Amino acid sequence: QVQLVESGGGLVQPGGSLRLSCVGSGFPFSSHAMSWHRQAPGKERELVAAVTAGSEMTNYAHSVRGRFTISRENGKKTLYLQMNDLKPEDTAVYYCYVGWFEDDYWGQGTQVTVSS
Predict the structure, then answer these.
(1) To the nearest whole number, what is the mean pLDDT of the chain?
(2) Residue 50: in which H helix or E strand, if any?
(3) What are the CA-CA distances from residue 66 to residues 63, 78, 86, 90, 98 (Å)?
(4) Are 110 and 20 a contacting pair, CB within 8 Å?
(5) Any bridge partners for residue 21, and if so which?
(6) Are 34 and 96 in contact (CB under 8 A)?
(7) Element housing 94 (H / E)
(8) pLDDT higher than 90, residue 102
């Protein structure tokens, strides 16, 4: 079955950095676009960044552009999100996502808290 397992979240001070990872299995990882999403308390889940299967193209939410970088290593079946210059408003649970055969698959999420 499809599995997505995130890691790398934690507590960081404003201006700090974190790198999230998402290991995928159960589907042809190198053939599918993937994305990171986040959900803050009381808010809807939102797209943070997306990357095509071969990393030809990336897309970012306006609020993170220039601070976050999405990347992937298909040989390791791993998706990354490098987050720099973190702000309190980046506090959320971060999820990786893949769509396959018209189904949606989400990881369990990893908490990112930005606070002094």
Answers:
(1) 97
(2) strand 46-51
(3) 9, 22, 11, 14, 23
(4) yes
(5) 7, 80
(6) yes
(7) strand 92-100
(8) no
